[in-house]
Design brief:
The complex is a heterodimer of chains A (116) and B (116).
Chain A (H helix, E strand, L loop, with lengths): L2 E3 L4 E5 L4 E3 L2 E3 L5 E8 L6 E7 L7 E2 L2 E6 L4 E6 L8 E9 L8 E2 L3 E6 L1
Parallel strand pairs in A: 2-12
Antiparallel strand pairs in A: 1-4, 3-9, 5-6, 5-10, 7-8, 8-9, 10-11, 10-12
Chain B lengths: L4 E3 L2 E4 L5 E6 L6 E8 L3 E9 L2 E5 L6 E5 L5 E5 L8 E8 L3 H4 L4 E2 L3 E5 L1
Parallel strand pairs in B: 2-11
Antiparallel strand pairs in B: 1-3, 3-8, 4-5, 4-9, 5-6, 7-8, 9-10, 9-11
Classes of the chains: A mainly beta (116), B mainly beta (116).
């Protein structure tokens, strides 16, 4: 079974600074997808960024980028120019590319605080 | 376009009762998944439905069940409620099972279930 580990329960960053959230995963599969979701106090899970395992190029979405190291099974999220609205729980998630299943395996999350 | 709608938003029940939660996916979306979120266990996959068929099921007891209707709306039912069932229940929808084309899942705001 796949597992996802987020080793940082909490992180804080100053507004306009850069922060990196860590995520490692364990799988025996070679084809899969990785995601970062954001969950603000409003509770809705919002997709931040996603990465296909077969792509070597790291995904970027505006101020958000990932460092995907397939061999190391590492998938960190970098937030540049942090804004107050970035404060939330961030979850790393894994989805197998086999069988067409929707199932996401989530890490325990990292609570990000942005200080003004 | 309306997002994923979950009702009710909050629910309080007592041990031994049963409960039904509802999820209306984004218009046109045919795949629905359910997750349980607790502080201790984090986010755990419950089940997924596509075209009224359960495609995958997580490791939960038989007290947890679900179904999907022809209009893609989904319900999940929990019978003989236990204190440990207190959680945020999240529903996610996608156009088709994302394993086919990696379309992202869209989450609702969840139903907060409290068991007294």
């Amino acid at each position: 079974a796949q597992t996802v580990t987020q080793s940082q329960p909490e992180m804080s960053v100053q507004e306009a600074e850069t922060v990196t959230l860590s995520c490692t995963y364990d799988t025996s599969e070679s084809d899969y997808y990785l995601f970062w979701y954001k969950q603000p106090p409003s509770r809705q899970m919002i997709l931040v960024i996603r990465q296909e395992a077969y792509k070597q190029q790291n995904a970027t979405e505006n101020r958000f980028s990932v460092n995907f190291q397939k061999a190391a099974k590492s998938f960190s999220l970098k937030i540049s120019d942090s804004q107050l609205g970035d404060a939330a729980m961030y979850f790393c998630a894994y989805r197998s590319a086999l069988g067409g299943s929707e199932k996401l395996v989530f890490g325990k999350g990292t609570k990000l605080t942005v200080n003004p | 376009k309306a997002g994923v709608t979950q009702t009710p938003r909050y629910l309080i029940k007592t041990r031994g009762q049963q409960v039904t939660l509802s999820c209306s996916p984004i218009s046109g979306h045919r795949s629905v998944s359910w997750y349980q979120q607790t502080p201790g266990q984090g986010l755990q996959f419950l089940f997924e439905y596509f075209s009224e068929t359960q495609r995958n099921k997580g490791n939960f007891p038989g007290r947890f069940s679900g179904r999907q209707f022809s209009n893609s709306r989904s319900e999940m039912n929990v019978s003989t409620l236990e204190l440990g069932d207190s959680a945020l229940y999240l529903c996610a929808s996608s156009l088709v099972p994302t394993g086919i084309n990696n379309q992202p899942q869209h989450f609702g705001d969840g139903t907060r279930l409290s068991i007294l």
